[in-house]
Amino acid sequence: MIEIIGYTYRADNYTPAALISYMVQIGELSPAAIDMRPEGALDQLASVCCVDRDDEYSFDSDDFPKVILSFCSDADITEFVGYSDTAEYLGL
Predict the structure, then answer these.
(1) Which residues does 12 contact at the CB level (< 8 Å), separation at least 6?
(2) From CA 8, how far away is CA 63, in angstroms rounded?
(3) Distance of CA 62 to the CA centre of its chain
(4) Where are the domains of the chain?
(5) What is the rounded average pLDDT of the residues 83-92?
(6) Which one, of 61, 47, 59, lies nearest residue 12 by Cα?
(7) CA 73 to each of CA 2, 5, 7: distance values in angstroms, whole numbers, following the listed order
(8) Count H helices, E strands: the chain?
């Protein structure tokens, strides 16, 4: 099964929860996004920013997050998690 297991944004990789937390922290998303599904929050932001999420070639990951997909059920999230997911980075 193919599923979204993370995102690439501004030269770093994030788990879904860490991406939303980071985007709230930098003011890209409102704090209400913390309580939303990551895809729902990103869909709303894409609509406001006129980003076509279905065509990832139409935007750069410096401007809007791109998905990291799992092509098998045994994907290891620790293989792509960046520094941004560490407690030190998130201020935890």
Answers:
(1) 82, 83, 84
(2) 10
(3) 12
(4) 3-90
(5) 54
(6) 61
(7) 8, 10, 17
(8) 3, 3
pLDDT digits (tens, 9 = 90+) for 21-45: 999 999 999 999 999 999 999 999 9
DSSP for residue 65? -
Please state whether beta strands 66-70 and 12-14 pair in parallel, antiparallel, or not at all (unpaired).
unpaired
Q: How many residues does the chain have?
A: 92
Percent of the chain with pLDDT over 90: 55
At residue 89, the pLDDT reads 52
Q: Greater confidence, 43 or 2?
A: 43
Across 3-23, average pLDDT:
88
Q: Are 29 and 45 in contact (CB under 8 A)?
A: yes
Q: What are phi and psi of 69, to 5 degrees?
A: -100, 150
